[in-house]
Design goal:
Helix content: 10-25%
Distance between the termini: 23 Å
Strand content: 25-35%
Number of domains: 1
Radius of gyration: 14 Å
Order of helices and strands: EEEHEHEE
Structural class: alpha+beta
Largest sheet: 6 strands, mixed
Number of strands: 6
Length: 134
Amino acid sequence: MKKTIYNPETIGPPVGHFDRAVQFDNWLFVSGVSAMTGLSGPMNDRKLEPGIQRQTQLTLDNIEKVLQAAGASFDQVYEMRIIVKEREHFAEVDRQLRERIPNKGYIAHGYKGELLHPEMELEIEVYAYLGELE
């Protein structure tokens, strides 16, 4: 089984001992992505734009960059895990997902959790299948 690692230069490098995405054959696993993913420099020096609306947009943009590095798109995502800082933020995340991925075709899990950086409003990880579907 072939293993391929993705750390696209279009976003910041991972802040920890992990890769942005790992592909095994046709299966792509994307690490948790946030608005901070697009920034570089020391973690504590990164400044995020405030607000769930803007951070969701940036997070989805960053996920798209990782998917594109692997030759994939949101159409190939089959599972998504969404972690929000505040429960009431999920409605905005869902609204933007409806715009970005109008054809559902994936499963999602929502969690309320504490995030590593106090300015982060959400983090999303996705899994995609890159093979042919019937």
